[in-house]
């Protein structure tokens, strides 16, 4: 199936590993030119090299922290200097730390807001003039099923990510006239370093092995396995493509059936 992504320019935030990297890889596989960004420069350059080597497309690596306004501006500026525009923006960032309400002071709330909501606002602000000039574009926010079913001990994620969903729905309405589509993708449990770390910590706390906790998690998932980063990337690529040209303002989970709500 031709997804119409050949030659398109995509920025994928937080993309040196995990779902961000898998998304950049999957867009590159469709022939898109991709900007990748993350804080650890060495790891970012390795990821860029791997994507380039595997798919033979142009990849721009911009070391950047999505919580820094100047970095966000630089990422978009360097992308546009290189390729003239931006067609696709995938918003992503690290996850906020775990904890319950009593663990959180103002500084922690502020950091989570800056990491997961303000970074999205800033990236959208920077790409909009270019998408409008190009006559359209696609914005996809990678969030979490925590916006549908709150996760235990993750009050920052449960709260701040819901703000991104509100932002996205409003943007989808405001930007439709500009030909810009805005959608959200919600991963369930996906095997990345972040999940490995969280399961590892929990195993330690409960005096169980990593494998025991992994099996318990898999038993809760109707499709019977923890997802791969590529499972999420495939959905993002579809939403980024012309095949999803009539889809905007939606929030789709990629979770093996974990969320049991009907909508
Ligand atoms: N894995 C899951 O099961 C799961 C499920 C639902 C939601 N999520 C959420 O999905 C997002 C991606 O998760 P993942 O599992 O793919 O994580 P991951 O494998 O740990 O990768 C995170 C990526 O984000 C980059 N990053 C982190 N903070 C950044 C910042 N401030 N500025 C720029 N880049 C940054 C990291 O590179 P640097 O550290 O070098 O910057 C890395 O490339 C997170 O928000 C996570 O909470 C994950």
What does this structure look like?
The protein is an alpha/beta fold. The chain folds into 2 domains: 9-189 and 228-246, 3-Layer(aba) Sandwich (Rossmann fold), CATH 3.40.50.720; 191-226, no CATH class. It contains 8 helices and 7 strands, in the order E-H-E-H-E-H-E-H-E-H-E-H-H-H-E. Helix 1 crosses helix 8 (229-240) and helix 6 packs across helix 7. Bound molecules: NADP nicotinamide-adenine-dinucleotide phosphate. NADP nicotinamide-adenine-dinucleotide phosphate (NAP) is lined by residues 14-20, 37-40, 43, 64-67, 92-95, 115, 142, 144, 187, 189-190, 192-195.
The unique ligands bound to this protein are: NADP nicotinamide-adenine-dinucleotide phosphate
CATH architecture of the largest domain: 3-Layer(aba) Sandwich
Instruction: Tell me the count of domains.
Output: 2
- CATH fold-type name of the largest domain: Rossmann fold
Name of the CATH first level of the largest domain: Alpha Beta
Q: Secondary-structure element sequence?
A: EHEHEHEHEHEHHHE
Give the overall shape, derived from the CA principal axes.
globular
Q: Biggest sheet: strands, sense, closure?
A: 7 strands, parallel
Estimate what percentage of residues fall within beta strands: 5-15%
Amino- and carboxy-terminal Cα gap: 28 Å
Q: Tell me roughly what share of residues is in helical segments.
A: 40-55%
Helix-and-strand structural type? alpha/beta
| Count of DSSP-assigned helices | 8
CATH superfamily of the largest domain: NAD(P)-binding Rossmann-like Domain
Q: Record the strand order, biggest sheet.
A: 3-2-1-4-5-6-7
C-alpha-based Rg, rounded:
18 Å
- Low-confidence parts: none
